[in-house]
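User: Fold this; C-alpha cells only.

Assistant: Input:
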Amino acid sequence: MDGMDIMPGVWDPSFIGESQHETALNVVSGEDNSSTRCRLERIRRDIRMWKEKNNVDGHITVIWSASVERPSEAEYKSADELLEAIYDDSNTDDISPSILYAAASALEGCSFVNGGSQNTLSAAMTSLFEQSYRQPDAPSTSALSKFAPYSSCPAYCLGTDFKAGQTKFKTAAVEYLRALGLSPRVIASSNHLGNNDMLNLTQKKTLDAKMRVKSDIFGPWQEDDLDHKVSVMYTPYIGDEKRDYVEYTSFGFLSSPHTMVTYTRCMDSILCVPLMVDAAIWCDYFVNHKVSPTDAARATAYLFKVPEGGAKGVDPGFFYQMKELEKVMQKASGEEDLIQKGLSKGIISEEQANALRALSTM
C-alpha cells in the first residue's frame, strides 16, 4: 500500500485521544474544514473522484477502520433531522467524523461499514440508507433536496466494531459451554498490546466507546445473572502482538462450578482485514441480488461485536450467526422462493417444506 495515494481525512481532535493529535498530519483543512456541511461535501467529492479515477462501475463500500472515536452526544429522530443538522453551518451539534463519512456514503449510493466502536449507527442513519428515503423525486421541503444531486442506488449501513479475535472466540466458547448444558456466570477477560489503536484507548473518552461494545456482546441473551467483565491495557513493549486471557466460570450439575481458561496471541492489526474483504464482497453481492437492508444486516452480524441497525438482537453465538447468513443466501439464490412456490401450488405439504428447509441448512 506504500504506493497508494492517501486522501486527507476529515477529523475532529475532540473525538480522539490526545495521543493521536501529533501524528494527525494528513487531514482536511481550510474551507473544506470550516463546517460540517463543507466536511461532508469534501468526502462526497473524494468518493466521486476515487470512483472516476479507478473507473469503478460497480458497488462501492466505505469502511471506517480509523482510531476509535469517543461517543457522539448528537441524537436525531429522523434522516431529515440528521441532514438538517449537517447542512446548518451555524450548528454546534456533536457530529463526529464517522457520522459524516456514513452520511456521505449514503448520499453517494455507497454502503458504509462501521468497523470502530463509536456510536455512528442510529435510527436516523439507518433511515438515510433506506432507498425509500433517497428517492430521485424528493420534495423540496425535504432536507435531502439540499444535498442534490444524490444517489438513489441501494446501499447498506452495517456495524458495529469488527469481531475478529478475542471476542469472536469468546462468543464461540460461550456457545460451546451453553451447548454442554452449563450456565456461564462469570466471564472475566483482559487483553494487552502496545500498538497505536491501544494507545488511543488510554484516554477515558475513547475507552468508553470500546468498553461499550466489548461489554455488550452478550446483550441479546438478556442474562441478568451473567457477570461479564473486560479490561484492556496498553503495554508498549508487546507492540501489535495482542495477548488475551479469559476465564469462564459456569454452573454445572447441582450448581457445581466449572472453570475454563483460554489464552491467545495474535497480530492485532491484520485480524480485521479479512472481515473488511468479506464486508465489501457481501455488500456488492447483496446489492446485485436485491437483498433488503434488514437481511443484509442480519447476514453480516457475524462480522461485528455488537450488530446494530437491522441486525440488532441477532443471537451473539457465532454458529447462530452463520445460520443467519445461510438463510439470507438461500433467499437471495431463490431456494426459499422455490419452496414457497411448491407450497402455494399444493405440490408439497408444509411438513415437506419444513423438511426441505432443514435439509438445506445441514
